[in-house]
Amino acid sequence: MNATPVPPESGVVYPVGLRLHDRRVVVVGGGQVAHRRVAGLLAARARVTVVSPEVTPAIEALVEPGSLSWVRRRYEPGDLDGAWYAVAATDDPTVNAAVAEEAERARLFCARADDRSASNVWTPAVARHGELVVGVHGGGDPQRAIGVRDAVVAGLTDGSIADRAARTPAVAPTGSVVLVGGGPGDPGLITVRGRQAVAQADVVLADHLAPLSLLETLPTHVEVIDASKLPRGRSMAQEQINALLVEHALAGRRVVRLKGGDPFVFGRGMEELEACVAAGVPVEVVPGVTSAIAVPGLAGIPVTHRGLTHEFVVVSGHLPPGHPQSLVDWPAIARLRGTVVVLMGVETAPAIAAALVAHGRAPDTPVAVVTDGSTPTQRTIRTTLAALPQVIAEEAVRPPAVWVVGAVVGLNGPHDEPTPDDADLD
């Protein structure tokens, strides 16, 4: 779409937010442009009718559940009757012009996708950031609007643009707690919602495996509490963490519990949630990218692969096989044919490898150990179950490390071809 500068004699664009909840909107056209417009209209909870002989699969998938109505034919005069808003998004300029003319006669605003100069409404570049809606008009230049929009959203996300109103607790004097999964360590792998929560925090309780570089972006008045749990070393007791979350929230602060990976994958997030609920503190969970999948993936190792494995299991290795407090059925794990991902299992790796072999896994089963996943010092060590204990010692492997057992480890090198039956499976 070409840039269309606003002629001075036409006046400037008047920005307005349409509240289209339960109001009829007609979209003429069923291609990719229409699909994008439909997505935004449905988010506004408009009653959308699409008029087009054909539509994209994504639009068609919305018909059966009743999210929108589809009139399966070309546009005809009268299709805009009862509409509050219209979009002309076909690939035929003649049809788009006819839709725009009907809208003009009906004093109805219509966004014409193919010709901005002939449209009586311009759609801004839009993004949503929590409850905020950012809309930018670029003076007729869509790319300019998109660039400014993206810069604003990036600033809101990383906190360089301060959303001061959002930092004020909605209900005084009680604050709130957000349990944020920070992903495997690289700050670029935290979710948008997670980064937003960190940027709006008054207090952050952070683990050592969380993306700590995000803390450097926080204003000086934000209190940062080290809630690390070092393997076999210093750690803050879980009861103390729970108490601090509740204490700061009850004092009216926005509290973020920043954890590595996902809060509910061996992260004790549920204990923290229960403590907040018991104290009457509002709590939100922001899922994170778990290291169990992300770290192998960053090393080029998928936990599943078509025709090779149909399951994977994630196991905590903080207790060795045979430990009275261990809840892992190691014989059952060993009998699985798929992928085994072990977290927190550096010190116990020799015992776990021995148990897997003793209960049925072949000693030459491929193993990959990935250390410092997603960081500049990430490295991958490839070996076998039988040789794992020796490799762990010789390579001086230290936490954090994720190790993966199974045929998927061999995908970057020689490995057995799948059987014909497996290869036929979807």
From TrEMBL:
**Protein name in the entry:** Uroporphyrin-III C-methyltransferase / precorrin-2 dehydrogenase / sirohydrochlorin ferrochelatase
Q: Which domain of life is it from?
A: Bacteria
Q: Which GO terms describe its molecular function?
A: NAD binding; precorrin-2 dehydrogenase activity; sirohydrochlorin ferrochelatase activity; uroporphyrin-III C-methyltransferase activity
**Entry annotated with the keyword Cell cycle:** no
Offer one example of a GO biological process linked to this entry: methylation
**PANTHER family for this protein:** S-ADENOSYL-L-METHIONINE-DEPENDENT UROPORPHYRINOGEN III METHYLTRANSFERASE, CHLOROPLASTIC, SIROHEME SYNTHASE-RELATED
The yes or no answer to whether the keyword Methyltransferase is present is yes
Among InterPro entries, the record links this protein to:
4pyrrol_Mease (IPR000878), 4pyrrol_Methylase_sf (IPR035996), 4pyrrole_Mease_sub1 (IPR014777), 4pyrrole_Mease_sub2 (IPR014776), CobA/CysG_C (IPR006366), NAD(P)-bd_dom_sf (IPR036291), Siro_Cobalamin_biosynth (IPR050161), Sirohaem_synth (IPR012409)
Mind listing the UniProt keywords for this protein, alphabetically?
A: Cobalamin biosynthesis, Lyase, Methyltransferase, Multifunctional enzyme, NAD, Oxidoreductase, Porphyrin biosynthesis, S-adenosyl-L-methionine, Transferase
Q: In which pathway does it act?
A: Porphyrin-containing compound metabolism; siroheme biosynthesis; sirohydrochlorin from precorrin-2: step 1/1
Quote the catalytic residue positions.
D207, K229
One of the Pfam families matching this protein, by short name: NAD_binding_7
Domain named Tetrapyrrole methylase is located at 177-388
Which reaction(s) does its UniProt entry say it catalyses? precorrin-2 + NAD(+) = sirohydrochlorin + NADH + 2 H(+)
